[in-house]
Specification:
Rossmann fold, 10 strands, 299 residues, binds pyridoxal-5'-phosphate, 4-stranded parallel beta sheet, alpha/beta, globular, 6-stranded mixed beta sheet
């Protein structure tokens, strides 16, 4: 499995002497997408070490993580249970229909109950109810996920100044920061509002992983486009142009916003002349089928 580096060419940055590469984590695995594969890798090893036969995790109805865990269970020989936020809707959307097709048992809970997803008591009850499974938190983020994501940077064979990554729970960027051990500049682009909270989360994830504190990173909070699942026409338009120019698909929740933000920052002169940038394509393209269905738009 390989995630090649692809250089993007455009006078917009090349006229400033800026070079831009994309690390194509989306190509790591056909179904266990991008960062979700990195986050699962050591969790799967740990589940096996604990001789667990079932993986149980949490997510929304369009979650990339749910799709990835379902696929990983099939490929690596675990049963999987997905605790899905909200009510069941038939027919299943493309994400859940994929998850079910590779064997995931779907269990729906109310939005109120879902808020307890990190409570110890609730997790103990779930473990009893579902046969003592290996529990993976929402989005797959824990210390083993951070460890897996440190390997994203170990796997970049060129020299560069900045690395850019979309953020949800912050697990991926925590691994990137820890893997760089204080080197380079790391820019995170949150998909949600509320960057201050996320900053604290990331700091804690790194601390729990290796006890270190780093200052070479920041969150760019201007490009969430109204929040997680809000899709603005200008973002879709940008994604279409990007696909045409670079022949690289994006999705509107994470990578679309990050590239929009990154290119906007280049345009506004944020990066010094001669900067070398690496952007992480974290994958998530499975979600596009759901967008097409829900919004009736081409993404
Ligand atoms: C889950 C996901 C992210 C966010 O990763 P976190 O580790 O939760 O910050 C970014 N991009 C894509 C495509 C994702 O699916």
């Amino acid at each position: 499995m390989e995630a090649p580096l692809q250089q993007l060419h455009n006078p917009l940055w090349e006229n400033q002497g800026i070079a831009l590469w994309v690390k194509r984590e989306d190509l790591l695995h056909p179904a266990i997408s991008g960062n979700k594969w990195r986050k699962l890798k050591y969790n799967l090893e740990e589940a096996r070490r604990q001789q667990k036969s079932t993986l149980l995790t949490f997510g929304g109805a369009y979650s990339n993580h749910i799709a990835a865990v379902a696929a990983a269970g099939q490929e690596f020989g675990f049963r999987t249970t997905g605790i899905i936020r909200g009510e069941k809707h038939l027919p299943l959307n493309p994400t859940l229909s994929f998850a079910a097709s590779v064997g995931m048992a779907l269990h729906y809970i109310s939005r109120e109950a879902y808020r307890q997803k990190s409570d110890l008591l609730y997790l103990t009850q779930l473990a009893e109810q579902f046969g003592n499974p290996y529990l993976i938190p929402e989005g797959g983020t824990n210390s083993l996920a951070v460890k897996g994501c440190t390997e994203i940077v170990a796997d970049i064979p060129i020299d560069y100044d900045y690395i850019c990554c979309a953020c949800g729970t912050g697990g991926t960027i925590a691994g990137i920061i820890a893997g760089l051990e204080g080197n380079k500049q790391v820019l995170g682009f949150p998909a949600l509002k509320g960057g201050e909270f996320l900053k604290e989360e990331i700091t804690q994830l790194i601390d729990r992983y290796n006890g270190q504190h780093y200052d070479n990173w920041q969150l760019i909070t201007d490009y969430h486009f109204g929040g997680y699942a809000k899709v603005k026409p200008e973002l879709l338009e940008f994604m279409r142009e990007f696909q045409q120019q670079h022949n690289m698909p994006l999705e509107p929740i994470y990578t679309g916003k990050m590239f929009y933000g990154l290119i906007d920052m280049i345009q506004k002169g944020y990066f010094p002349q001669g900067s070398r940038l690496v952007a992480i394509h974290t994958g998530g393209l499975q979600g596009n089928a759901g967008f097409r269905e829900r919004l009736g738009v081409e993404v």
